[in-house]
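Troubleshooting entry. The earlier prediction with ribulose-5-phosphate gave an output that would not parse, so I re-checked the input for stray whitespace and re-submitted. Clean input:
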Amino acid sequence: MMLKTWIRKSVTRQMTTIGNKVEAAKMAAAFRAVDENLKPNDRIIGIGSGSTVVHVAERIGQSSNKDSFTCIATGFQSKELIISNGLRLGSIEQFPKVDIAFDGADEVDSKLNLIKGGGACLFQEKLVASAASKFVVVADYRKKSPSTLGVQWTKGVPIEIVPNSYAKVTRDLQEMGAKSVILRQGGSAKAGPVVTDNNNFLIDADFGAIEDAEKLHSSIKQLVGVVEVGLFIQMADQSYFGEESGEVSIWSK
Ligand SMILES: O=C(CO)[C@H](O)[C@H](O)COP(=O)(O)O
């Protein structure tokens, strides 16, 4: 085989192995989190967004008592997951008290503070998590922070804002010391900014390693124009991490 072809094949194989490992880790975390936390008397279940939660919905969809509970979505993708897994869909307006919510995260610190919103669904995710008696995070090994938030997830804190406030909130965040403030763009699939499920815009504000996540959260939250901040402070009860080894590790409050 020509050297170039061999290198290309070997790199592709390596990437596939890494991809499979991450996917297997997500699945292991999700299945274990559901198996250990979903109780027969849970009636209202929150389903988050992202690629790890796909496995949560799949596992919940395998329950034999599907008719006895209702699932609350955190956005469009989540709604589709609930429906496609044969689960009953309800709304947070009908059920403002949620028994348990499962969701992914972009970064988790040892106090179970989270960065969320990488998938642009942070407002509804926080709404459902805040209504839940128990909030369980599912993630792969890449999401663990070695110290503070902002170390592992370096794309910035996602912030949902009312569209016409973007220039003013950008200035506010710069004045607060953000190293970069980016209005998230739709990429090749959309000219212009990402529009959230709530018809808002998203800003990613990079504050580097966040020493005091609670303080930063309250400061951003106070800015006029901000709908919600992708810092989830002391909301999660447990976090399940699928490890590279195939094991699952659990961080609890
Ligand atoms: O906050 C989120 C979406 O807004 C997701 O939960 C977060 O991005 C994790 O996603 P994934 O499971 O795909 O890594």
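This one parsed fine. The mean pLDDT is 94.
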